[in-house]
Amino acid sequence: MKTIQKVLSSLVVALLVSLSSFAQEGAKVIGVINHADWCGACKKNGERAKAAFEANNKDGAFQFVVNNVTNKTTKNESEVVLDKLGLKAAMSSNRGTGVVYFFDAKSKTYINKISVAKEDEKLGEAMNLARKEAN
Predict the structure, then answer these.
(1) CB burial readout 50-63, b (16+ within 10 A) else e
(2) Structural domain boundaries, residue 43
(3) Average per-residue pLDDT in the chain?
(4) CA atoms of 25 and 112, how far apart (whole Å)
(5) Helix 120-133 × helix 40-55 angle, to 10°
């Protein structure tokens, strides 16, 4: 069972890396979603927040990546993606689960953060602020 999980995790990370490379070219903001399978806020609000992020990203200004901090293996796999995006060092001090951290896609400068537990309207407001702050 663990072998199957490792293979699936590797495939997900490979997909995220390829999507990250493709999406970053047009993105103004990178949203790093700190997720863990054991996180109550992630479980309760993840799908709703994802829908709100998609609804507020019709212009494609945002690229979202998942920083899966469930366990050592997923952390290491996520670090590969964060390193490729130039955000590994920045995310080393941003460890809260159920939180999305927004960065300027070009400068990698931190803009703001928001909990996925916030209402859809607040998620949209945080995205609008990040969009305005990005170069």
Answers:
(1) eebbeebbeeebbb
(2) 2-133
(3) 87
(4) 21
(5) 60
Burial bucket for residue 42 (CB in 10 Å: 0-12, 13-18, 19+): buried
Q: What is the CATH number of the domain that holds 8?
A: 3.40.30.10
71-93 per-position pLDDT tens digit: 999 999 999 999 999 999 999 99
Q: How many domains are there within the chain?
A: 1
Query: What are 38-62's pLDDT values in tens digits?
Result: 999 999 999 999 999 999 999 999 9
What is the C-alpha to C-alpha distance for residues 48 and 64, in angstroms, rounded to an integer? 15
CB neighbours (10 Å) of residue 104? 17
Amino acid, single-letter form, for residue 89: A
Q: Please give the pLDDT value at position 17.
A: 43
pTM of the model: 0.81
Question: C-alpha 13: how far from its chain's center?
Answer: 13
Sheet containing strand 62-68, edge to edge, reads: 62-68, 29-35, 99-104, 110-115
